[in-house]
Amino acid sequence: MPVLNIIAKYIFRKQKTLTIPDLLRIERRPHLNKSPNLYGMLMMRGDLDVLEEVLRCNAPYFRAIFVLDGTEQADESKKILDKFPTIESVIHDRDLPEEYNRPPRDGARQVLLEAIQKKFGYDGYIAVLHSDEMFFDYPPSLLVGAMKHFDIDSVSVNNVHFFLHSSIKNQYNYETSKSVVSQIQYASFPGYREMRLFKNKPGLYYHPNEHSRVVPHGLKGSVKTLFPIRHYLYRSPDQMVSGASDRAKRDWQKYGSGWMEKSDERFVDCLEGYAFAKRIPPGSRIINGETGELDFFLEDAT
After folding, report:
1. For residue 298, is it within any domain?
2. Of 182, 67, 197, which is closest to residue 135 (Cα–Cα)?
3. 287: how many CB neighbours lie within 10 A of its CB?
4. Is residue 29 part of a domain?
5. pLDDT band (50, 70, 90) for residue 260
């Protein structure tokens, strides 16, 4: 019987994309009730206008977060990071070993992986974090439950991109003192699928100067989900331009900015390359990262 169960699980995860209801059912299984240790690796540069809100949302889910900070205003980022006891360690780009390119590539997460494993060994699970993304709708523990249930090393999510919609062009005024969730309410779908959580185990590694790969080598087995992560890459016209300029200067990918070279318009009906856009009102929760289906309303999202 155990062999049949293993085969059934393998077939299921190969054929099915897990929905939020699937993940909730898995998490309720008695053998998964023990809360696992979850560690974060945050590679950041700037985003100081949203960093505190992002950490207020994400930090409670983690035992410890390790940061690689490339922010030019390092004193300003330190003021924010110091507010969160979950921040275990901060490494600055300038302190990376010589074998790492300047500016660093995605593979520089190797120093964060090494720091986590030096401090905590091969315990728990690790999430790849960014300073403009939030686990706003559901906790990452749902994803850990799926990895434990299927005995796999990694899981994918839908990265849901919020943007400045054409309907708000004449009245929008971005205020850094207010919640970005309440101010930017349109997102493009389906969310971009990418791996974000993985099992902490021996044999994992990044190539230090490899780019466009955020999870390490050495992972085996994965499952697809419709779990949404909210991405607030676009917050104001000025911020969009400065962000694109910074990525170009560092020879970073044109991720999220290629369309801006074709037009001066920053308020659009839908982001280029996506099927449709949808308004996500404050207080609502995204239950499907592909369709934008909404769940019940929360008491307060701001």
Report:
1. no
2. 197
3. 19
4. yes
5. confident
Least confident of 33-47, 79-93, 187-201: 33-47
What predicted TM-score, i.e. pTM, was given to this entire model?
A: 0.92
Tokens of 252: 């970073």
Residue 66 sits in a domain whose CATH number is 3.90.550
Q: How far is Cα 103 from Cα 82, in angstroms, rounded to an integer? A: 24
Task: Provide the residue range defining the domain that includes 183.
Answer: 2-279
158, 137 contact by CB (below 8 A): no
pLDDT of residue 9 exceeding 70, the answer is: no
Q: What is the pLDDT of residue 84?
A: 98
295: in domain: no
SS3 call for 189: strand
* Structural domain count of the chain: 1
H/E run at residue 59: none
CA-to-CA dists, residue 143 to 27, 60, 105, 171, 199, angstroms? 9, 16, 26, 38, 11
